[in-house]
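This section describes the prediction task in plain terms. A model, or a person checking by hand, is given the sequence of a single protein chain and must write out its three-dimensional structure as a string of tokens. No templates, partner chains or ligands are provided. The sample shown here is typical of the held-out split.
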Amino acid sequence: MALFTYALVDEVTTLLQQRQQTLQQPTLAEDLRLLIRIANGEVERIQGTSEETRRFLAPIEEALQRVLDAVLGNAWASSSHGPIVIPPDFWSSDIGVVAARVRWWLSLDDLITISHAAALAFGENTQANRMRIARAIDSGQLTWVPDPSVANPQQNRRVLLPEVERLRDLRSLPE
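The expected answer:
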């Protein structure tokens, strides 16, 4: 009895063809142009009601997600199948710097330090809780972005407040 069948060939080639189609979409180039304009300071962020701001930022957030998926995803585990784990060296590449600047521009008030995240998610800023936050980052549960104003790579990580709040809320659910 064979361990594998030729259905596996069909499954893998279908995934690869879908991935290839995603990478060839004209919207990917448009997304990149938009993100570069934002990273270069050419797009001004609107100051309106929270609903107006949300409607303005949502397509930019989606563009950033599509670009990260195209650059960092793969045929087997794209963002539609789970979180993308971003390798630390990505942030020093040109596209990583663009992505970081866009994330800062998008998340203006929602990026917090690892220490703040540890205290918020686990009730106390301890080494053990900071390590728990680091493990959540490594597993893709939390998204981190380098803070360009902090030179020390050990201290420049910032995470998204809504993701930390979600982590905290998941902890408090009864099992």
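For orientation: The mean pLDDT is 85.
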